[in-house]
C-alpha cells in the first residue's frame, strides 16, 4: 500500500510539469485560438477537480482510508495548480488582446477626431462656396436686370450714335468687355457649383467614414469590456483555486499530524511529500532556467553590485532566526522566521535593486517573487502571505516585495529565501551580510 501510495503521489506531483507544458497552444496560433484552447483545457481540469471532490467525500471521514484521502488531496493540489497555470496563461493572452484593443481604440479615436476636423473644414468650405455663388449670382441678376431695363445696343446702333469712329471703337470695346464680364460671371457660378458638389460628396464620404469608425469604436469598446470581465472572472477563479490549494495542504498536514511519527503510514506520507516538494523545486528551477534562456533574465558572473545585499527581513538580528539552512535535506535556500510573523504584518524586502521577473503563485512555493539584480544574479522570496510587486516592475534595495506568510507547502509562517546565479541556486549565506 505504501509503495502504491508513493507512486500515486509522485505521479500526481510530476504531472504538474507535464500538464503545464501541454496547455501551451502552438506558437503560431492567433490570440483568439490560444484563448479558446486555454478555455477548453480549463474546462477539462475543472471536470477532474469536481470528480476528485466526489471521491474525497467518501474518504474524508474514514480513518482507515487516510492515506487514500491524502493521495486524493495530492492529486487535487496538482490539478488545481494546473488550472491556475492555465488561467494565468489565459489571463496573459486576454491581457495581450486588451492591450491591442486599447491601441485600436486610441487609433479609432484619433481617426474620428481627424474625420471630425475634415467634416468641419468641408462644411466651412461649403458655406464659403455657397456664399460666393450667392454673391456672384446676385451680381449676375443685377446685370441682367440692367440690360432688361436699358435694353441692349446693337453694333449698328452704336455706329450711328457715335460722334466719331474712334468713339464707336471705344463703345464696341466696352460692349465686348461687358459681354466677357457677363460670361465670366456665369462661368464662375458654374465652377463654384461644380466645386460645391465635389465638396458635398467629400463631406458625405467623411461623414460615412466617421460613422463607420464610431460603430467600429463601439464594437472595440464592447469587446474590451467583455475581455476585462473575462480577466476578472479568471482572476476570481485563480484566487479561489489558491485558497483551495492552501486548504488542501492544511488537510494533508493535519492527516500527517494525526499519524504516529513511528508508523509506516507517517513515514510513507512524509517521504512522498518530501519527494513532491523536491519535484516542485525542480519545476521552479526549470521555469527560471526557461526565463534565462528566453532572455527575460540577465546572465553573467553573478557578481554583487557595490551596494551589496541587505537582509530580506528588515528587522534587528534579535528579531529574526533561521530554521533551515541551505543544503539541509536538499534545501535550496534558507528559511527565515521573524517573531510575530504569524500575524502577517512582517515585510519581505528586496536585498538589492533590480527588476521583478516573476510574481505568481505555486502550489509548493505559495506566493513567490523573483527579482533579477543584473549580471545573472537573482533572488527568490517564497511562501508570502501577499505579493506587493508585479512583473516588469523596478524595485530599489529595501523595497517591500511582500508580506511573510504560510502559503504553499509550508509548516508555519516564514520566508523561504534563495539566491540564484544564471538560474542555479547558491548558498545565500555567501551573499548576506
Structure write-up:
The chain is α+β, with helices and mostly antiparallel strands. It has a domain at 300-433: Glucose Permease (Domain IIA). 61% of the residues lie in helices and 14% in strands. The protein has 6 helices and 10 strands, in the order ααααααββββββββββ. The chain has helices spanning 2-22, 31-59, 66-150, 155-161, 165-258, 264-293, and strands at residues 320-324, 334-338, 347-349, 354-362, 366-374, 377-387, 394-395, 400-404, 415-421, 424-426. Strands 1, 2, 3, 4, 5, 6, 7, 8, 9 and 10 form a 10-stranded antiparallel sheet that branches. The longest helix has 94 residues, at 165-258. It is elongated, with a radius of gyration of 40 Å. Residues 1-26 have low confidence and may be disordered.
Describe the secondary structure blueprint for this structure:
Blueprint: H1 2-22, H2 31-59, H3 66-150, H4 155-161, H5 165-258, H6 264-293, E1 320-324, E2 334-338, E3 347-349, E4 354-362, E5 366-374, E6 377-387, E7 394-395, E8 400-404, E9 415-421, E10 424-426
Antiparallel strand pairs: 1-2, 2-9, 3-8, 4-5, 4-7, 5-6, 6-8, 6-9, 9-10
Helix pairs in contact: 1-3, 1-6, 2-3, 3-5, 4-5
Which descriptors apply to this entry?
single chain; 433 residues; alpha+beta; Glucose Permease (Domain IIA); ten-stranded antiparallel beta sheet; 6 helices
